[in-house]
Amino acid sequence: MGLFIWAHRGASARAPENTLAAFFAALEDGADGIELDIQLTRDGVPVVLHDVTLDRTTDGRGRLCRWLLRDLRRLDAGSWFDNRFAGEPVPLLEEVLSLFGGRLRLNLELKDGAAARPVLDLVRRFPRAEVVLSSFNRRLLRQLRQHDAGLPLAVLTDQRFWRPALAAARRLGAESLNPRVSLVGPALVAACRRRGLAVVPWTVDGDGPLRRMRRFGVDGLFSNDPAAARRVLRYDQP
Ligand code: G3P
Ligand code: MG
Fold first, then answer.
1. Does residue 77 sit within a domain?
2. Ligand 1 centre and the CA of 8: distance in Å?
3. Domain containing 205: what range?
4. What is the largest CA-CA distance in the chain?
């Protein structure tokens, strides 16, 4: 297999991000895995949403952490993208694990500092699901590691000085460093290689950036359009 292609928030170029529709689209488009952002509701249930607030991607208002699950589930997380997706709910992590766990690898990006325990408890109920847990929050990653020595972890960074993130990834026994695409160059790739870490940048779209990442020798990448990424990375000559 070539580069591992993660559908960023699902196939979010053609379906509303972080919805089941976007995850089914990713499956259809031949992605190897899906990335989804996890936060907790006020009653502590792990759900899939990127922003701290509901305003951009649903018809709800305010901070997600103030909403109870039963009220959140009435919201429409699809219409903002296109009327064809009206009525798409904010998914539960549990639904994603159950629907996609055995079919695609799942990259659960934990946005919420309190999410370690509830997410781990849930993931353990789906032993067939192939997951990697990722975060910008290193404290959270350390908690995950303390709870589970074998859990696949990835460290995210958007810092121009990426070496501390690399050192943290090593200490945690993470499988990869996932940097913002603009940080990736020969120095970063070589430093990861020396430490046995994979490099998986986000978010990579467009022929030029996709080819540049392949040239640098990254191991995988996050794309909003996995079908286009596949066309460029699998069927083109470098
Ligand atoms: O996991 C990669 C990427 O999703 C990190 O940034 O803001 O899109 O969650 P963001
Ligand atoms: Mg994310």
1. no
2. 7
3. 4-39+103-235
4. 51
Tell me if 137 CB under 6 Å of ligand 1.
Answer: no
Tell me the backbone φ, ψ of residue 44, rounded to 5 degrees. Answer: 80, 20
pLDDT above 70: residue 116: yes
Domain at 114, CATH number: 3.20.20.190
Q: Whose CA is nearest to atom 1 of ligand 1?
A: 109
| Euclidean distance between CA atoms 82 and 86, whole angstroms | 7
Is residue 157 in a domain?
yes
The residues assigned a catalytic role are 8, 50
**How much is the mean pLDDT over the chain?**
97
Whole-number Å distance, alpha carbon 203 to ligand 1 midpoint, is 8
Contact assessment for residue 183 and residue 177, using Cβ atoms and an 8 Å cutoff: no
Compute the distance between CA of residue 157 and CA of residue 134 in angstroms, rounded to an integer.
10
For 176-235, the pLDDT digits (tens) are 999 999 999 999 999 999 999 999 999 999 999 999 999 999 999 999 999 999 999 987
Q: How far apart are CA 13 and CA 165, in angstroms?
A: 29
| Distance in Å, CA 28 to ligand 1 centroid | 22
